Amino acid sequence: MPSLIILHTNDIHGRIAGLARIATLVEQARAAQPATPVLYADAGDSEETAVRLSNLTKGVAMHRLLSAAGCDVVAVGNAAPVRYGSEVLAEQAAAASYPLLLANMRQPNGAPVPGVQLSLLHDLGGLRLGLLGITSEVDGTYEQWFGLKMPEPLPLVRELAAALRQDGADVVVLLSHMGLAVDCELAAGLQGAVDIIIGAHTHDLLPNGEQVGSVLVAQAGEYAQHLGRIELDWDGTQLTATASVQPVPEDTPESLAVVAEVARLEAEVAHFLSEPIGELTAPLDFAADRECGVGNLMADALRERMQADVGLVAVGQAFTGPLPGGTLARLTLWEVCSSSANPGVAMLTGAQLLELVQRGLDPAFAAETPRPLRGQARGLFHLSGATMRAGQLFVAGQPLDPARSYRVAATDWELEPYGGYTPEAWGLQPRYDVPIILREVLEEYLAVHRPAEAPIGRLG
After folding, report:
1. Calpha distance 95→264 (Å, rounded)
2. pLDDT average, residue stretch 44-69
3. From CA 286, how far away is CA 228, in angstroms rounded?
4. How far apart are CA 264 and CA 281, in angstroms?
5. Do 288 and 367 touch, CB atoms closer than 8 A?
6. Which 8-state DSSP code applies to residue 99?
7. What is the spatial distance between Cα 11 and Cα 129, in angstroms, rounded to a whole number?
8. In CATH, what class is 4-268?
9. Cβ of 338: how many Cβ atoms within 10 Å?
10. How many Å separate Cα 399 from the centre of its chain?
11. Would you say 52 and 18 are in contact if contact means Cβ atoms under 8 Å apart?
12. pLDDT of 443 above 90
């Protein structure tokens, strides 16, 4: 009989039915060996903006569902904090029945961000298990946008692992949302400090794990399709660990506890979502390949919020459908505006602005379906405070001045190089209004403009 069984998942990304099936397998594993402690750990990114219940709650719902699934500990991924800021972690922690582990994201004063703890010591059937969690840096996003500090993981993990050993940990497990290549590099530098790395972020499926010296690296794929399993034998001095993965068949019964929690969540959000948030003078259409009403509305809202000369937005990242005329309920907006993009503003020369707009109005580029948009077409740029007529760009009714600087409102999707619109060579330094996301921008705009309208004719 193993001394301890660790079951693990990663990168569930809102697959609620899959999580409900995993909960059944976790329950079955605990019942099959009642004398052996079973720890269920998740290595991050249970949240998913493209999944309704997760999106409507900024990922908080997924932590309630993981709690119902019997999860014992979670490492913070990048899916929630990179979109909503670290503030969302306190909300998620309050909803969870387990601790959120995150050691390498700190406030400017060096303290952990609210809602998380650096490490955890668990006494499980005579084996003292030390756990700590780290997350990916995401190209400096946390430092640049949120003013957070991301200390180097290797020396930090060494220090925390040593502290866990000092406190009596027999085995130290690192929950890492850094990706397989980084995990293998860390494993090489953590010999004797960490025994096991349970990974995530790169969605790798390791049927038997990878052994890097004395460190076992494990990862269980993605989307709740597999359940990882690590069996630990501990004789008081020597550890033996073996890794495997179990497919999650689609005919596995869904956990009644998870299904019941889904129903509770839906009931809780129903009243909030039914509240009226504004009024539209007429229905606003949606289209990716031509000018449309919802795109113009969002461009207007961005320009006003950021007090800019020009507002612009790629309609495909902002909307998935039209809005009806008349009184608008929150649910109606949120169902077609699931974007987690943050409003921002940057100074561009007229020449840069023209190049940016031309790129955003390129029909072939607008038809692309990049992975971050989950299959949605980019859609054409929509403008506020500016018009395009016969290939010429006008701002406030005047022809664009290539040498003048313009204050341009958009989101990180349009202003950051990762979106594909602005080259790194421009060296833009946007300022973002985080953790506000697009649907919140529009709610505030609609509260002031009653009724609101968004005339067509800006891309003529």
Report:
1. 13
2. 94
3. 42
4. 35
5. yes
6. P
7. 23
8. alpha beta
9. 22
10. 40
11. no
12. yes
Its pTM stands at: 0.79
Tokens 């940016």 locate to: 356
Type and span of the H or E element at 331: helix 330-336
What is the rounded distance in angstroms from the CA atom of residue 206 to the CA atom of residue 88?
31
Q: Where are the domains of the chain?
A: 4-268, 275-448
| pLDDT, position 37 | 96
Continuous segment of H or E residues that includes residue 4: strand 4-9
pLDDT in tens, 82-121: 888 899 999 999 999 999 999 999 999 999 999 999 999 9
DSSP per residue, 237-262: S-EEEEEEEEE--TTSPPPHHHHHHH
Distance, CA of 13 to CA of 38 (rounded, Å): 24
94's CB contacts (< 8 A; 6+ apart) are 115
Q: In this model, does residue 1 exceed pLDDT 60?
A: no
Measured distance between the N- and C-terminal CA atoms of the chain, rounded to whole angstroms: 73
234, 282, 296, 297 from 322: Cα distances, Å? 59, 11, 12, 11
Three-class SS of residue 348? strand
- The vertex-352 CA angle with 347 and 353, nearest 5°, equals 75
How is the chain split among helix, strand and coil, in percent rounded to 5?
35, 25, 40
Indicate the Cα dihedral angle 79, 83, 84, 90, nearest 10°: 20
If you classify domain 275-448 with CATH, what class do you get? alpha beta
CA 159 to chain centroid, in Å, comes to 28
- The answer to whether the beta carbons of residues 151 and 110 sit under 8 Å apart is no
